[in-house]
Specification:
By secondary structure, this protein is mainly alpha-helical. The chain contains 7 helices and no strands. The longest helix is centred in the N-terminal third of the chain and has 15 residues. It starts with 7 loop residues before the first helix and ends with a helix.
């Protein structure tokens, strides 16, 4: 008795050919109109004003930054402190020269951010710098 060898690739090919015949993907109505629409250039452009740019040298001073932080705190009361801590970490972390006061400030911010796990936060922060 000889066993007939099955060819799974032929079976799969036949199955897929049958599936292709039975499943027809519906084409959108008026395909030519849709393609023509997509090729058109816009006739109207939305009137969008450009955002005001803050030039650091001319407009940024401690008073302006304080006012911005106060506005930010009023708008984001629930998570303002976490945002402020992140700002402090990022700004102090990018200074060219780090002092012991800077390190103490970052450690304090890390403590305030995660009081339950502050030791691990401090260790991880300084290891990744």
């Amino acid at each position: 008795m000889s066993a007939k060898k099955k060819n799974p690739l032929k079976d799969l090919s036949a199955f897929l050919a049958h599936q292709e015949e039975t499943v027809k993907v519906p084409q959108p109505k008026k395909l030519a109109e849709a393609e023509a629409f997509l090729e058109k250039r816009p006739t109207q452009i939305a009137d969008v004003s450009r955002p005001a740019k803050i030039t650091v040298a001319a407009e940024a001073n401690s008073e302006t930054i304080k006012k911005l932080l106060i506005e930010f705190s009023e708008k984001n009361k629930s998570d303002f402190r976490e945002e402020l801590y992140d700002i402090i970490k990022e700004v102090i972390g990018k200074l060219d020269h780090s002092t012991s006061e800077d390190k103490m400030l970052i450690n304090t911010v890390l403590y305030l951010s995660d009081q339950e796990n502050w030791k691990e936060s401090v260790k991880t922060y300084w290891e990744n710098r």
